[in-house]
Request: fold
Amino acid sequence: MSSISAPEIRKEFIKSKVGLVGIGILSCLIILSAVSAITIPIDTFKQWNNPGSWISYPKTSVPVWINYFVSEKIPEHLILDNPVTITKDDTISLTSNQFGMQYYYDDFPSDFIYEFNVEYSGSHLLQISVIRPDQSEILLLSKTLPYSDTTVMHNERIFSTDNNIKKNIQIYFSEMELYNKNMSSEDMIFANIDGKVLKGDYLFLVNIYGANEKVSVIDSKLIVGGKAYGMMGTDELRRDLIVGLLWGTPLALFIGIAVAVGSVISGLIYGVYSGFKGKKTDEVMMRFNDVIYALPALPFLIILAVTISNSIFLLVGFLMIFGWVGIAKVSRSMALQIKTRQYVEASQMMGQKNSKIVFKHMIPQLLPYAFASIAISVPAAITTEAGLSFLGLGDPTFPTWGQILHDANTYGAAARGLWWWIAPPGIMIAITGLAFVFIGNALDAIVNPKLKK
Amino acid sequence: MFAVLMITLLLTIALVGSNMDIILKQGVVYQVRAEITENPAIAESFATVEEFEQFIQTQIDERIKTLGLDNPWYSPQRIGLTMYKILILDFGNATFLTSDSGSSNVGDILLEKIPRTVLLFTTATIIISIIGIFLGALAGSKVGSVIDRITSTFAVVSSSFPVWWIGMLMIFLFAFTYHIFPARATPSILPTEPEYIFALLYHMALPLITIVMIGFGAWAYLVRNFMVGTLQEDFIIAKKAIGISKKKIIYKHALKNAAPPIVTILALSLSGSLGGAIITEAVFDWPGMGRLYFEAISVMDLPIIIGATYVLTVLFLISILVADVLYGYFDPRVKT
Reply:
């Protein structure tokens, strides 16, 4: 323990490669949190545990980038919600939504769903047809929307398993003598003469005709089901894992840093004060310290989380309860050394207040050590929180990486080979931990020159 | 030491006490109603529904009184009674969980689970410390060499992975992709059969490998740091000058001098691993203390929670004591 000035530490730190790598990773993580906080709306994230909001996503689909590594291209799950809209006003008005897509995968889509939300009055006719890469046009569905005198909102989902679609496809393909009853509607649409996938550009047309009355399309969405979606795939509950992973970053950083800073500062003040006061006070404070030290931490954390609350902020507090003990012990022994220095004795003789001596003369001496301890205790806090979440004791309103892993475990991801559900959260935990371990080790080597070898 | 134990118990009781009361009271209500449904004659002997309900209520109240539940859980008699019972190792009966042999006595359940946890984690800790001490001694004697750098890097990297996550990956790889080890660590045959012990050992392999893999890096790093310190001492340099072989110096003299802190940490990590077993056992489905604890908490089986916390704390305190004694044995200077 020695007093090193801040510029010295900075100078030494820049020399340490490990420390710089740590800072590098940490800044990447901070940028990542900022980006995710800006690009992914908080509402999406808040809906994490609400299955209803993930309904248009696919179940347990692999990440999209897998297609770069495999020869058989896995069909991507396409959510087309930005159609080209054409409106014509004549005696018969026409609102047409066109969904174009490039289908170059080696397997058929699992299904398709057309979801729409319209506002109209009177009588309207809805027609769905598809133009295939070979320029053939197939009418899939033709149906009237329920008649209404007043303006009504109409919300409907049309599935590819719809019987009318099946009939229309049967009529179309029977004419060409290509109809195969064992194939489902979506397979027929995307198949060529040999029954393989017909690759190319498809155009789905949704036309709504009305006599005089106009129709306004509020929402129109075509979902073509596939087995690959998003950067990180989706889980059993159809959630887009990238959302959870990205939002987990600021949460993990918050938990780790808050716990580390809180416990190191309280431990530091506790230890220094105890060492400074000495005698009876020291004895009592250190016994109390021993008691907390002897408590089995994880069982108690579990009991606390179960009986009191699993709110993330309280959890941070609980983790602090068990975090400050070691720091207090070390800083007490350091304080015992500093106490004997002459300037402390001098200021005592001058009649300065105890609190002033502790905060002005003793704690600043220990700050380098405190910084190193903060960095070193962050990973433990993050892994402990992840562990508690993994046991299902996490805060459901804030999905952390541990909770993703908890869900993965409950749905048997390991048994089903869903590696994209298991690996990324753990890697993120490890990377975050590593960043702080690197920084902490570099700082530690500067503060404790004995270790440098 | 004893005071610490008592405080731990008090805290546990304080935390779970109110829930315990609610559960026990519900249990009484349920019991009374069940008895009445079994015996329809009681219900028939009442003229009105109100009278009948009142009868049930008085029955419930009476039983609550005889059980002492009318006092709140924080009343001195009840806490005193609970503490006394625990001290004489009478943990009572579990509310929901039972041992494999069907007994619901907390003592029986704990006795059945403790050996398994000790088996897994003690074996793991011993393997870890042996690998760690030799690797650490090797790395510490050649500071800056390739082996030293690899050890240090591995220590840092492995310590930032959660053991249970590595466990999930290991299950994924070795149990489901390559089918080498079973995925669940609970053997499928009954504990009474003679092959049980082999089945248990086979099922133990995967968790054991995982724990060792994650654990030994940090150990080696620790030992290395102590070794580096010891190897700079004058007596080692003197021995080198005399011409004693390097191997002998490292393993006989230096390691002996680095022993006190290493032994202390060994004792602490043994007991620490028991507490940390909760998550690892949950992942591997290992039928030990950790999983019992987790199951007890998820169904709020309070006698088990209290019993298990007590046992864990006792083990932890014993190991602190043992560490202190061992430290004094290896390094007589601390004896005052």
Summary: Chain B touches chain A through 50 residues (CB under 8 Å). The two ends of chain B are 19 Å apart (CA to CA). DSSP finds twelve helices and no strands in chain B. Chain B has a mean pLDDT of 76.
